[in-house]
Amino acid sequence: MNDKVTHGMWRDDEKVENINVLGLKAAMLAVQSFCRETENCHVRIQIDNTTAVSYINNMGGTHSPKCNEISRTLMMWCKNRGIWLSPCHIAGKDNCNADSYSRKHSVHT
């Protein structure tokens, strides 16, 4: 997505969610933000949460109902647009650019 950037802050009710739920939500929001006008293509997304990668690769899971719901929602969103989503893991230490945006506070967010 070249120079496109998106970021935001979790609402108070979201801040208490499990880190895996937040990782999946972040992935879903990123894909929906960057691909809202995209159809019939392959999208590779780098995620620093191995559970989120696994849930997306497996199109859901049985351990966490919330993670299952988010991953299935994301996959249906992609399917309806002909987007083939392939997540891969990126180590947190290598995810500095994205992490810097997650720490920005904006009154406009």
Question: What does this entry look like structurally?
Answer:
There is one protein chain. This protein is an alpha+beta fold and 109 residues long. 47% of the residues lie in helices and 13% in strands. The chain contains 5 helices and 2 strands. A two-stranded parallel ribbon has the order 1-2. Helix 2 packs across helix 3 and helix 2 runs parallel beside helix 4.
Secondary structure elements and pairings:
Elements: H1 12-15, H2 19-34, E1 41-47, H3 50-57, H4 65-80, E2 83-89, H5 96-102
Parallel strand pairs: 1-2
Helix pairs in contact: 2-3, 2-4
Keywords:
single chain; two-stranded parallel ribbon; alpha+beta; 109 residues
Please outline the major beta sheet.
Answer: 2 strands, parallel
Q: What is the residue-averaged pLDDT?
A: 86
Strand order of the largest sheet: 1-2
Sketch the topology as an H/E string, one letter per element: HHEHHEH
Specify the helix fraction band: 40-55%
Our Rg estimate from Cα atoms comes to 14 Å
